[in-house]
Amino acid sequence: MRFEILQLSLFYILNFEMRYLKTFLAIVSTVIIASCAKQLPKPSKEIKSILVIPAEVINKTQMERKFDYIFNFQSKPDSDSWYGNNSPQNDQLFSVRSNLQQDGNSLTIVSGLSPGEHRLFSMTENPINVRNVNPNTERMRHRPFVLEEGKVLIYPYELRYSQEFKGTTQMFNYSRKFEPLTDQGLKNIKEELKQYKNYELWALRDKIAEGALTEQVTSTESNKIPEKFTSGLELDVGVNSKYKLSSDLTWLSASGEGEADLEGNDIRFVYIAAHGISWGIRMSEHNGKDSTATSYFSIKVTENTPYIRYDHTLYSNDNFLLEGQIAAGFNLVTVEIDHPELSPNASSSLGFMLEPSIFTGMEIQDEMLFGLGMSYPLDYLKGNANWLYSGYTLNYNYEITKSPIVFLIFRFSI
Questions:
Q1: Tens-level pLDDT at each residue, the chain (414 residues)
Q2: E strands of 155-276, at which residues?
Q3: Cα angle 236, 241, 242; round to 5
Q4: CA 115 to chain centre
Q5: Could you give the 3-state DSSP secondary structure of residue 155?
Q6: How many angstroms separate the CA atoms of 399 and 385, rounded?
Q7: How far apart are CA 382 and CA 243, in angstroms?
Q8: What is the spatial distance between Cα 352 and Cα 343, in angstroms, rounded to a whole number?
Q9: How many contiguous H segments (helices) and E segments (strands) does the chain have?
Q10: Which of 332, 301, 307 is nearest to 402 (CA)?
Q11: SS3 at position 266
């Protein structure tokens, strides 16, 4: 009997000790893993430079994060030019799994890239704990960055992932986007890197990586990453540019009204900067004839318009873009009026351009977007011309209104 009691006591003691040991080992393992994660690799023949990509996860649900991401890098080719190297094979890319938390900030340490020029070519979205969703790889459009031997470079943009419930249901929305890293964010990352093991073995770049993001990457309830050319060149060619002229002619006690269609061309050159801002120059010329009882007035309108435009993406996926735009600028206008029996008359004026528009385009090459745009000019022109005819003043007053214009648009990423 005593032996059985002793046996039972030993069993409970061993069982308690094993549970305690398991708990202790779990805590130790967690500490070890955490300490290992918070370290930089040591410089070696294989590892000569480091890239740090910051990330933030905002998880407002009680579920685990549903997507994970892999960064795919391309190194600058031996030809010393990126042109013509926009479709590398998968085996030509260097891939790194992102280090994302379930909720909170993290740093992805990329140590497999050699010193030199590289770019983040694509990003692969992998579903985790999600059914009936396939991995999706989308092309990125970031400017290249340069790694230097013995130095750590902080990427200028932060990957931000958010996940939240849809109302009171168990369905969820998610989004991810790259946003510019602020000065405070850069300072915080520098301070965090100082806590990493082996930090003292590397030199930290004083400034954030040069270069600008040439797209905004966003997504909600979708596996597509919209692409947006927010740094590039654009050519707009009007295909039906028409103006309507209304005139009022007075001479002595006689008066008359007339109208004319002015047809011509409208060509625009645009530089697409960051954050949806574009700068453009518009050059147009329109001609027409306003018939009178015995003859006609020839009208020629020439415009040169420097303007600024704001572009806002309404919808986008992997190769389609729908964009709303609003443009404003100063319109330098020259109006020339001629009549067979009168001397030529020319006048110049400075007006204001205001023009909302909409653009839809398809990507036809890796670096080119082709589409159509529709502009709705809100500005108009008013003026008058005077002649001395048979000893009396002849007045010709006119007003020119603009019709909606369809454009062929070619957009090139730079």
A1: 544 544 545 444 445 445 544 444 444 444 444 444 588 999 999 999 999 999 999 888 878 888 899 999 998 877 666 765 566 776 788 999 998 888 889 999 999 899 999 999 888 988 887 777 788 888 887 888 999 999 999 998 899 998 887 766 556 778 888 888 888 888 899 999 999 999 999 998 755 554 444 433 333 333 333 334 446 899 999 998 999 999 999 988 888 899 999 999 999 999 988 678 899 999 999 999 998 867 899 999 999 999 999 998 888 765 678 899 999 999 999 999 999 888 999 999 999 999 999 999 887 765 688 999 999 999 999 999 999 888 899 999 999 999 999 999 998 876
A2: 157-165, 172-180, 203-204, 232-238, 242-251, 254-272
A3: 165
A4: 28
A5: coil
A6: 12
A7: 13
A8: 29
A9: 2, 22
A10: 301
A11: strand
Angle formed at CA 403 by CA 397 and CA 409, multiple of 5 degrees: 135
Q: How far is CA 295 from the centre of its chain?
A: 54
313 vs 407: CA distance, rounded Å:
18
- Is residue 302 packed enough to be buried (19+ CB in 10 Å), middle (13-18) or exposed (0-12)? middle
Show Cβ contacts of residue 123 under 8 Å, excluding neighbours closer than 6 positions.
Answer: 69, 70, 71, 72, 137, 138, 140, 217, 225
If you search the block for the tokens 């200028």, which residue do you land on? Answer: 156
| 65 neighbors 159 (Cβ within 8 angstroms) | no
| 356-to-156, 263, 399 alpha-carbon distances in Å | 33, 21, 21
Distances (CA, A) of 146 to 54, 132, 154, 184, 395: 17, 39, 11, 23, 67
Measuring CA to CA, which residue among 375, 368, 401, 382 is closest to residue 282?
Answer: 375
- Could you read off the pLDDT of 65-100 as tens digits, one per residue? 888 999 999 988 776 667 655 667 767 889 999 988
Query: What is the Cα Rg of the chain in Å?
Result: 33
User: Contact at 8 Å (CB) between 186 and 158?
Assistant: no
**Six token digits for residue 400:** 């020119």
Element (H, E) at 36: helix 2-37
Residue 290 has a CB neighbour count (10 Å cut-off) of: 23
